[in-house]
């Protein structure tokens, strides 16, 4: 049976507050929030985690901007971005072991810091995932028309992606399809992801090997000999460039925490999600280093036609490099990015939907968000709302921004740093009374999340300040302020405003009646 630390259910008004509820009820097979418990194992969770990161989509969108920011130090910057992700993942694992709850950042930050910062932590996760959902859909649109043009050998079809009305309507079709699959629950999600993830991993390894072969036989565009110095992040010219590079590299690792948001639906919810998160981050790191090194060896960082420093290809590197590197098999890379975007678009719905479900469950959001689809045992209403908001955000950005991809990626990087940082520091504070009880507790519950959280906080503040410059990102600005700063500040302030509205409408959560602040020794 489900075990409760305290007796009252959500909305009871009992002042003791609900601490947390274990993931499954043995009689019903459902979690405390009505989700289908025990439907995902370690392999399934890892596959969904990789899918949410979307390596093919992420790399084609980030290789160019990262190379432009830090040059050949890109592998070193990827390493720097990997370290806080790993440290934060260790903290997430400890929090999940203690409190397996689909609210993750929202629930854990509330338990550690109280309702106000906890609510903002949940908001940060929701905003980040909504931003990336819009981004994923945009990339899927680009590669859909590119793939059709390659198959039909009609280059004009690829230009349809630049037509704003067609682009926005096609994005809507992708969003509806992904929302539908996610609405049908984790079993449908898992089955689809095995094929899509496996395909993109194989093609990316193929691309990297082919690029290295071109370098070896002298047919690379701008052959650049490998150097161990590429892994030295301190070779970056300035701290601002370093911070921009790290923000981008944090973006490319983002998404592994989806394995935690579905903890109420995994087998052995206290251990499986944390192990899947660590495994996901490790696999992705190796893949990224391989592709980054291979791309540098083939293209270099110059501004030539296929150089990684060429602004004309920076938003979609694989579209330019696929033909020269993979020859007649270039269509496979286009299909890999398309499938990566579509797969991640669908799996990314998992995070915001389950966070909104938890926030509705604990009355931090309207109760309607706590509703579960009777047939599919998924957070149906929250899933639909995530899709509608993400499409609306994309439509607005597609009209306002000169380069919607770059600006949303940089905005996303700030949001990731914010809510990951809050969650990492929540781990430190929640376990503070037992942090020095053993060497293991000191490292996993104190030192690792503290270092990871501080790094992310520094990157967040630095990026926020730098993004005020009207030349930051794509160069889009409003009134002399960079669009990235305006987006980041607006999204955070909108969260604060909505939080006060919720406090006035339903104060139960904010007075500790539905989710109680505490420590690990309570």
General description of the model:
The protein has 522 residues and is mainly α. It has a single domain, classed as Amino acid/polyamine transporter I (Up-down Bundle). 65% of the residues lie in helices and 1% in strands. The protein has 17 helices and 2 strands. Strands 1-2 form a two-stranded antiparallel ribbon. β1 and β2 form a beta hairpin. α4 packs antiparallel against α5. GO terms for molecular function: transmembrane transporter activity. It is a multi-pass membrane protein.
Within the largest sheet, what's the order of strands?
Answer: 1-2
Beta-strand share of residues: under 5%
The H-and-E topology, N to C, reads as HHHHHHHHHHHHHHHHEEH
CATH class: Mainly Alpha
| CATH homology superfamily | Amino acid/polyamine transporter I
What is the general shape?
globular
Low-confidence stretches: 1-30
Count of distinct strands: 2
Total domains, how many? Answer: 1
Here the CATH topology equals Amino acid/polyamine transporter I
- Annotation field: number of helices: 17
Assign a percent range to the helix content. 55-70%
Report the structural category: mainly alpha
**Mean residue pLDDT:** 83
What's the alpha carbon Rg, rounded to whole Å?
22 Å
């Amino acid at each position: 049976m489900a075990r409760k630390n305290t007796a009252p259910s959500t909305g009871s008004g009992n002042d003791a507050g609900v601490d947390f509820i274990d993931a499954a009820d043995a009689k019903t097979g459902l979690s405390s929030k009505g989700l289908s418990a025990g439907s995902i194992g370690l392999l399934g969770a890892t596959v969904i985690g990789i899918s949410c990161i979307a390596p093919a989509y992420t790399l084609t969108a980030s290789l160019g901007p990262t190379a432009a920011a830090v040059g050949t130090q890109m592998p070193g910057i990827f390493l720097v971005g990997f370290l806080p992700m790993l440290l934060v993942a260790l903290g997430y694992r400890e929090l999940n072991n203690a409190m397996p709850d689909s609210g993750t950042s929202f629930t854990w930050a509330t338990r550690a810091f109280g309702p106000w910062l906890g609510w903002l932590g949940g908001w940060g996760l929701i905003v980040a995932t909504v931003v990336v959902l819009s981004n994923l859909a945009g990339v899927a649109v680009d590669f859909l028309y590119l793939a059709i043009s390659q198959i039909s050998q009609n280059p004009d079809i690829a230009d349809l992606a630049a037509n704003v009305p067609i682009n926005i309507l096609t994005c809507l079709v992708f969003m509806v399809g992904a929302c539908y699959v996610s609405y049908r629950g984790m079993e449908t999600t898992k089955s689809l992801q095995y094929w899509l993830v496996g395909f993109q991993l194989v093609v990316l390894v193929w691309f990297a090997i082919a690029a290295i072969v071109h370098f070896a036989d002298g047919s690379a565009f701008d052959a650049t000999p490998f150097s161990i110095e590429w892994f030295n992040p301190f070779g970056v010219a300035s701290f601002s460039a370093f911070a921009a590079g790290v923000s981008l590299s944090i973006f490319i690792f983002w998404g592994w925490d989806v394995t935690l948001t579905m903890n109420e639906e995994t087998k052995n919810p206290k251990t499986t999600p944390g192990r899947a998160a660590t495994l996901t981050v490790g696999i992705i790191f190796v893949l990224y280093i391989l592709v980054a090194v291979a791309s540098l060896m083939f293209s270099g960082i110059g501004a030539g036609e296929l150089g990684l420093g060429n602004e004309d290809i920076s938003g979609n590197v694989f579209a330019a490099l696929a033909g020269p590197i993979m020859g007649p098999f270039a269509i496979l890379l286009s299909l890999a990015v398309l499938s990566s975007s579509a797969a991640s678009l669908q799996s990314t719905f998992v995070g915001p939907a389950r966070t909104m479900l938890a926030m509705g469950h604990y009355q931090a959001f309207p109760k309607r968000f706590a509703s579960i689809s009777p047939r599919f045992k998924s957070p149906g209403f929250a899933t639909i709302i995530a899709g509608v908001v993400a499409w609306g955000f994309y439509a607005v950005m597609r009209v306002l921004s000169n380069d919607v991809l770059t600006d949303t990626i940089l905005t996303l990087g700030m949001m990731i740093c914010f809510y990951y940082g809050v969650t990492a520091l929540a781990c430190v504070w929640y376990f503070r009374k037992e942090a020095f009880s053993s060497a293991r507790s000191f490292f996993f519950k104190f030192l690792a999340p503290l270092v990871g959280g501080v790094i992310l906080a520094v990157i967040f503040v630095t990026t926020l300040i730098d993004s005020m410059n009207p030349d930051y990102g794509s160069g889009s600005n409003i009134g002399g302020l960079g669009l990235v700063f305006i987006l980041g500040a607006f999204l955070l302030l909108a969260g604060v405003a909505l939080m006060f509205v919720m406090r006035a409408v339903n104060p139960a959560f904010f007075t500790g009646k539905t989710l109680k602040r505490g420590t690990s020794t309570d």
